[in-house]
């Protein structure tokens, strides 16, 4: 009895210690009293002090297979940014969409979603925003010029009309034989029309221009988040989930690049269209015919000049270069190798090797990323002024984009998860959720979705209004995916055998 009591006390003490570390780390993350990366190091010293995990065990959690996967993707991202391939993709898609406000927003959202599928959300936003800013500045400058031109036109028209009216009165007086003093004739000239008011208290010519700028800026940020859902490498949260799932259920073999893509792509496409409609309604109104028409006859002077500016920016890139071609080939090759490694419905290229489970998506990512340091950035027949040995990317290019803070942040999440598993805290939390087992599956999934949404916070009122609608759209689309194409893809109606695990705390 004493032994059982001691074991129970030790187990509760371990769970309490782990919960304390979890709460302390979460408070630091939410309050941002210290940098996020520094807060992620809290489990590295508290877990060993409280006896939850050994120092060597905690350290191993901070560098995982997903870290290598991220490093390889960053190598490709460095090459994309260095050779301006992202600008070419974004400008080309915007040129296709046109300069109508609604279509312009949709065009930027589409190219942002595409880039965010492969790059981090932060990197994608940082790449696309300067392009969008150039277009917005053109809209603002054109709006001011239009306002001034309209003012001068109205003034000149008013004076001309006044002079015409004056001459008409003189002619009538001469015909009637009446003559007036010259000062009396001035009373006949009406005052010229007032100049249209330009918003001098703001950076924007009109309130509509301000709304367009808001809509475009927010649409890019939300599109980056939506694009990050599509692939495992799209955002760090996907990497954390995939790593934890595969480590906890090594026999599952259900989460890979292919299955993730098949499940998430329809979600992202539906969310993209609904988010665009919501932001358009919120900032641009409901007149989609006016803001989304592709007819050339409906284009205003401002839209024509904006399209001209976009074409000029694209022309500055010049013809597609050799490094851009190489980067594009690596981009396609990495995607194909990820898809065909273990598709699930057919045998992948890993069948060519005898030992199974040794090659992952990180293997492909790091291999192609490493080759970018070796392949010359010039053609085999360089000119005299070109360095034939200059590689596609250098270590400085990689270092400039490598988010080490995110790596440590993700590692801290892995360490917290490992502590929860070893201490038994995760089992205790699972037991607290047992009363929900009697609820319908769709209701439980909806509760989980809303629970995950309550860690986010915004301070700007525009983001609150826009984000509220986007969050509801996300919950609705995820629920739709789980109850339709997600069920046959992952067999969600059946409890899998690989999920049956022994009680970890039984040996404590």
Automatic annotation (TrEMBL):
Entry's Gene Ontology molecular function annotations: solute:sodium symporter activity
Cellular component GO terms held in the UniProt record: plasma membrane
Signal peptide: none
Primary site of residence: membrane
Keyword Cell wall biogenesis/degradation: no
Entries under InterPro entries matching the protein: SLC13A/DASS (IPR001898)
Key word Transmembrane present: yes
Entry's localization field: Membrane
Protein's membrane topology: Multi-pass membrane protein
Pfam families the UniProt entry points to: Na_sulph_symp
Source superkingdom: Eukaryota
Family: Belongs to the SLC13A/DASS transporter (TC 2.A.47) family. NADC subfamily.
Protein name as catalogued: Solute carrier family 13 member 4-like
Naturally occurring in which organism (per UniProt): Sinocyclocheilus anshuiensis
């Amino acid at each position: 009895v004493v032994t059982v009591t001691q074991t129970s006390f030790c187990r509760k003490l371990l769970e309490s210690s782990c919960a304390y570390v979890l709460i302390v780390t979460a408070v630091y993350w939410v309050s941002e009293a210290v940098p996020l990366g520094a807060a992620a190091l809290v489990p590295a010293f508290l877990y060993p002090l409280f006896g939850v995990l050994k120092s060597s065990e905690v350290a191993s959690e901070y560098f995982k297979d997903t870290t290598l996967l991220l490093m390889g993707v960053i190598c490709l991202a460095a090459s994309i940014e260095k050779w301006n391939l992202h600008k070419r993709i974004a400008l080309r898609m915007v040129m296709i969409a046109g300069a109508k406000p609604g279509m312009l927003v949709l065009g930027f959202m589409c190219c942002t979603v595409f880039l965010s599928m492969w790059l981090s959300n932060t990197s994608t936003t940082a790449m696309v925003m300067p392009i969008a800013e150039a277009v917005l500045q053109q809209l603002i400058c054109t709006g001011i010029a239009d306002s001034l031109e309209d003012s001068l036109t109205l003034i000149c028209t008013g004076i001309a009309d006044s002079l015409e009216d004056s001459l008409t009165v003189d002619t009538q007086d001469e015909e009637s034989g009446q003559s007036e003093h010259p000062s009396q004739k001035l009373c006949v000239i009406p005052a010229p029309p007032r100049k249209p008011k330009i918003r001098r208290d703001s950076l924007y010519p009109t309130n509509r221009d301000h709304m367009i700028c808001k809509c475009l800026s927010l649409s890019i940020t939300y599109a980056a988040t939506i694009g990050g859902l599509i692939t495992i490498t799209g955002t760090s949260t996907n990497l954390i989930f995939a790593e934890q799932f595969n480590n906890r259920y090594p026999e599952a073999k259900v989460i890979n690049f292919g299955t993730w893509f098949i499940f998430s792509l329809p979600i992202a496409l539906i969310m993209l269209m609904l988010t665009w409609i919501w932001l358009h309604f919120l900032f641009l109104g409901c007149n989609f015919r006016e803001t989304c028409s592709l007819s050339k006859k409906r284009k205003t002077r401002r839209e024509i000049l904006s399209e001209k500016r976009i074409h000029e920016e694209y022309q500055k890139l010049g013809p597609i270069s050799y490094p851009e071609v190489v980067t594009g080939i690596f981009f396609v090759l990495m995607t194909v190798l990820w898809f065909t490694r273990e598709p699930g419905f057919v045998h992948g290229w890993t069948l060519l090797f005898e030992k199974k489970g040794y090659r992952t998506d990180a293997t492909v990512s790091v291999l192609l990323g490493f080759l970018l340091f070796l392949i010359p950035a010039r053609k085999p027949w360089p000119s005299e002024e070109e360095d034939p040995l200059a590689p596609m990317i250098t270590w400085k290019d990689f270092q400039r984009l490598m988010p080490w803070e995110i790596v440590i942040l993700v590692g801290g999440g892995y360490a917290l998860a490992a502590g929860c598993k070893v201490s038994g805290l995760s089992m205790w939390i699972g037991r607290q959720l047992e009363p929900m087992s009697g609820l319908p599956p769709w209701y439980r999934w909806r509760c989980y979705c809303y629970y995950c949404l309550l860690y986010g916070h915004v301070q700007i009122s525009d983001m609150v209004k826009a984000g509220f609608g986007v969050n509801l759209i996300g919950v609705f689309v995820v629920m739709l995916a789980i109850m339709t194409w997600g069920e046959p893809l992952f067999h969600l109606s059946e409890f899998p055998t690989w999920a049956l695990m022994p009680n970890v705390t039984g040996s404590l």
